[in-house]
Amino acid sequence: EGPVHSLAGVLRDLSGNETLLSEALPEPIPKVRFDFTPPVLLIPARFGQLVGPGGDFETFVTVSPDTQTLAVSAYPCTGSCHHLMPPEAWQLDLASAQALSASSVTQVEGAPGKWRIALNTQAIEALGQGRFALSAVATDAAGLSSTECALSTAEDDTCWLGVVVIDQSAPNLESTELTLEPLLEGAEILAPGAHYTINASFSDSVASAADPIDPLSISVRVGGETLCTGAEVILSPEGTSGTLHCEVAVTPESTSGTQSVQVILRDGAHQGLDATVHTLGEVTIDQNYPKLESVPFWQVARPDELTPQPFLASPDTIQVSYSAWRCPE
Questions:
Q1: pTM (2 decimals)?
Q2: C-alpha closest to that of 163 among 68, 90, 88
Q3: Helix, strand or coil for residue 87?
Q4: pLDDT over 50 at 154, yes or no
C-alpha cells in the first residue's frame, strides 16, 4: 500500500525459451498501487440549515483527497431531529431515503478533498417539505467506502452530515376570538379595571416550538405594543400546533384610544413581513374621566314647582347619577 509498483514478467516455453513480458505486449505494462485504506469524511460539526420560500441549500464536505465519488442521501425525519441532538437520537424513516443527484454533489475544482452539496429549486421541490437528515458515503478509486460515522440504526457506511429543514408554508391561524369585558355591561369602551381576552388556535406543517432550526412562536400585538409574553400557550406533543389564552387588564398606564389587536405567528422561515398576521378587531380604552359643569343654584318652591337646572357633561358620558343631600337647619 502506498507507492506505485511496476509489474514485470517472463514468458517461458517448455524448451526453456524466454521472452520478457514487456517485449511481448503491444502496450506498456500498467503500473499499480495497492490501496487498503478507505476514504475518510471529516465532520467537525453537523449543520442545521433552514430553506424557506425561494431559498436554496449549500454546504461543503471535506473528505480524503483520493475520493472518487461522494454519494449523499436524504432521510426523512419522523420526529425529533436536529443538529444539536446526537444522531443516534434522531427519529428517521430509514426505508425512505432519497439519493441526491450527481449534479447536486460535485467536487470543488482546484481543492482536492473538498466537495460541494447544493440543492436548487428543482431539487428542493423533489424532496418536498419537512426535515431531512443528510448522510454521505465516500468511495475511492479502489472501490473502498468510508466507514466512519457509522450509526447502529442505519447502514454501517452511513456518515451523518446534518439536518436540513425545508419549510415553504407559513404558519396557519385556525381560529381567533376577542372578548371585551367592560365595567358597564354592553359598553364598547374599556376603562381602568376592565379587561379583554384573546383566544387563538394555530398550527404549522413543519415548524415546532422546540426546534432550534425552524422554531414556531405566537405573539399578540395591541397597537404598537407586544403583549401576552407570559400568556398560557398549550402545545400538542409534537409542538407543531397549539392554543393561546391571554387576558389583558386595562390599567391606568394603558394607552388611551382605539388600537388594533393582532395575533402574529412566526416560524424560522416566515419572519417580518412574511409572518402570519391576523387582526382580531379593536379595543378602545378611555383614560379620561367625564366632567360635569353647572352653575350653582338655589330654589324655594314646592316640590311640584321645582325648575329643571341644566348642566354640561363630557360628550362621551352615557350615564349620570345624582344625589340629594339635606342641608342642616
A1: 0.76
A2: 90
A3: helix
A4: no
pLDDT value at residue 231? 87
- Could you tell me the CA-to-CA distances from 218 to 73, 209, 256, 273, 319 in Å, in that order? 34, 9, 25, 15, 40
At 42-88, the pLDDT tens digits run 887 899 999 999 999 999 999 988 899 999 999 999 999 999 998 88
**Using only C-alpha atoms, what is the Rg of the chain?**
38
Cell of 8: 514485470
Work out the number of other CB atoms within 10 angstroms of the CB of residue 34.
11
Cα-flanking dihedrals φ and ψ of residue 75, to 5°? -105, 125
Q: Which grid cell is 300?
A: 324655594
- Please tell me the distance from the alpha carbon of residue 198 to that of residue 68, in angstroms, as a whole number: 60
Q: How far is CA 80 from CA 45, 49, 166, in A?
A: 19, 15, 15
∠ Cα 79 176 272 (to 5°)? 65
3-state DSSP assignment of residue 50 = strand
Q: Which three cell numbers stand for residue 192?
A: 381602568
Cell readout for 14 is 517448455
Q: Among candidates 283, 281, 171, which has minimal Cα distance to 218?
A: 171
Q: Give the CB-side neighbour count of residue 138, counting CA atoms within 13 A.
A: 29
What does the buried/exposed string (b/e) look like for 136-157 if buried means 16 or more CB atoms within 10 Å of the residue's CB?
Answer: bbbbbebebbbbebebeebeeb
Whether 49 contacts 211, CB under 8 Å:
no
